[in-house]
Amino acid sequence: MEQKSGMQMIPLDTINGFPVRPGFYLENGAMALPGGVNFTVFSHNATAVWLLLFRRAECDPYAVLPFPESYRIGNVYSMIVFGLDIAEFEYAYCVDGPYDPKKGLIFDRQKILLDPYARAVAGQSVWGQKAACDCAYRARVVSNDFDWGKFRQPGLDMKDMIIYELHVRGFTRHASSGVKYPGTFDGLKEKIPYLKRLGINAVELMPIFEFDEMRDARVVDGRKLLDYWGYNPVSFFAPNTSYASRKEDNREGEELKHLIRALNENGIEVILDVVFNHTAEGNEQGPFFSFKGFDNNIYYMLTPDGQYYNFSGCGNTLNCSHPIVQRMIMDCLRYWVTEYRVDGFRFDLATILGRNEDGSPMSKPPLLQALAFDPVLGATKLIAEAWDAGGLYQVGSFPAWNRWSEWNGKYRDDLRAFLKGDAGKAQAALNRIMGSRDLYDPAYRGETASVNFITCHDGFTLKDLYSYNVKHNEGNGWNNTDGENNNLSWNCGAEGETSDIQVLSLREKLIRNAFAVLMCSRGTPMFLAGDEFGNTQYGNNNTYCQDNEISWLDWSLQKENAKLFDFFCYMIRFRKEHPVLRGKTAPSSCGFPDMSTHGRTPWKHEFHWDDRMIAVLFDGKREEGGGDDIVYLAVNANWETEYPKLPELPRGYIWLQAVDTGREGCYYEEYRDMPRAEGNLTMQPRSVAVCIGARPEEMSNISE
């Protein structure tokens, strides 16, 4: 904090032996200053606030400093304490105020409270271990002097992104990962060459805000279960210190910053999965460590009798319609964008951010609108999970201001159903492949509203999608009652592990089919880490508590399933080489529509209940002044061979086949080696074909 010219900060008072003065009221949290530390905190209903200072690993404070009434402006308390060394203390607060539970007022001056703006949480740095002193959360002051230099973020267009969802710990925790620092930010950084080889250009990190994995620790069938996923945030501004490979006392977040810079330098953007719909404080029976003690009836949505609404399914719901909560969320996101250079956010259960205080959905939620137009977030990707545990489903109708994108849950469900051969899904599948314009009108939502996915952390892996008819979550300890029941999966004739060659071959073909369609669909594709080499969770579709081999990626499968991995790399490269798959381009010289539907015969526009063979033709230019870009995607979800007729190309053009998952081993080569696809295609049962149309003289340049 800069001081005015000629001014020197000097103590004005002494409190319990500490020299102090009023602080900087607009700087929330704790901030190191020359000669002292500024502490600022606010509460709407509090009557008194105390600052507590702790020695490291000690449960009792060595100093308690009440904020004088004169150190309060409005509802903000701010104090500079001189002579503090940030390396020698941790801090927390006590807050007093009225107690009237039916009005949501539950102030308790005996509770030790974590600063809502804490930049680091103490005692959480060793994964799977409780702090040596099992007491309340405390915060640390962080030195934010990381030098980004001339760093520039990739600035990818949403339509050009290929998102790879991963769990920081699970990605490299398995011994087969071969990294020096397994399960950490540095471990992920060691895998950047792998990510580049795969071809993805964005990683979506499951929650990395500070959470307590020991929150609901228990043992089931001899296996220790933890809060592994991290969807119960303790602190929104603090990175999870147990994901760092070494202690970073008072420099928490540096390893994460090095990771983000390294990913960005290699052309890979970073999207954080953020949870602003609830906190780890839970309901009336839950812990009391932060927001409950500062302003329970402001931070949480409460019923008329003071109970917690539970639209999150996790005990409480953040009151995102309140200006105080909105400001905190805005401050938090700006912090992650400016201090960590994060490229985007995926908002867990984002419909909660648009609920009113009584739980009803708002037509123009102020928080969502503010995020859409915030200058600091102007280049930041905003992705909504457009549903919540309270039954509000807004896929296609999420308030967007032509700014928000959505996880397209209908893409997942419609493609899963069609690809396994369900009847009545042909038209829906075509709509999804063509960018879901029935859901996202480009005039109002732009061309980048849909984030397409078939698998994500929540549900089956792609291998398990075609290995299990039903979930197998017995290991979670809830008698298999948790997790989604409607998975739209198919075991291909045998439940789970099998040695049946025909079943295994069919499963692999269906995996390839799904990924080929995903890479040839309009919208931003996303897939789950490990799908590229057939990772399995053994039928568990809700691994939120499984910090073990069920969730960790087994990297030995990359070698075992090398051909599958190569196919994923090929399809990612294919998408990058064909701009018409990513969005509308200038018209080609053929004069075809931008997108058109086809079936057994070309130019088919009406599809019936029993149609299981569909095709989409994408047409346009590669670039201004470049050659034509014509891609034909055909999907045969039937269990019989189909012989679709290809659309006739203008004179001088030929069809070349780029993908045929029906060939043994899944035939694919570089384009110049493709056989010509004249007249009719022969599509084996349950297969996908991709053809490109071009002039022969252009082909030598396509794959170079």
Structural descriptors:
single chain; 704 residues; six-stranded antiparallel sheet; 20% strand; disordered N terminus
- Give the low-pLDDT segments: 1-6
Q: Which percent band covers the strand fraction?
A: 15-25%
The helix fraction, in percent, is 10-25%
| Structural category | alpha/beta
Strand line-up of the largest beta sheet: 12-13-18-19-20-21-22-23
Cα shape: elongated
CA radius of gyration is 27 Å
Largest sheet: 8 strands, parallel, barrel
Q: Secondary-structure map with pairings?
A:
Elements: E1 13-15, E2 18-22, E3 29-33, E4 36-42, E5 48-54, E6 63-66, E7 72-73, E8 76-82, E9 90-96, E10 99-100, E11 105-106, E12 163-166, H1 168-172, H2 185-190, H3 192-198, E13 202-205, E14 209-211, E15 218-220, E16 223-225, E17 233-239, H4 254-265, E18 269-274, H5 291-299, H6 323-339, E19 344-347, H7 366-373, E20 381-384, E21 405-407, H8 409-419, H9 426-433, H10 442-445, E22 450-453, H11 462-465, H12 501-519, E23 524-528, H13 556-560, H14 562-577, E24 595-598, E25 613-621, E26 628-636, E27 654-660, E28 687-694, H15 699-702
Parallel strand pairs: 12-13, 12-23, 13-18, 18-19, 19-20, 20-21, 21-22, 22-23
Antiparallel strand pairs: 1-2, 2-8, 3-4, 4-8, 5-6, 5-9, 7-8, 10-11, 14-17, 15-16, 24-25, 25-26, 26-28, 27-28
Helix pairs in contact: 8-9, 12-14
Architecture overview:
The protein has 704 residues and is α/β, with parallel strands linked by helices. Helix content is 19%, strand content 20%. It is built from 15 helices and 28 strands. An eight-stranded parallel β-barrel has the order 12-13-18-19-20-21-22-23. The longest helix has 19 residues, at 501-519. The radius of gyration is 27 Å and the shape is elongated. The two termini are 53 Å apart. The relative contact order is 0.08. Mean pLDDT is 94; it is low at 1-6.
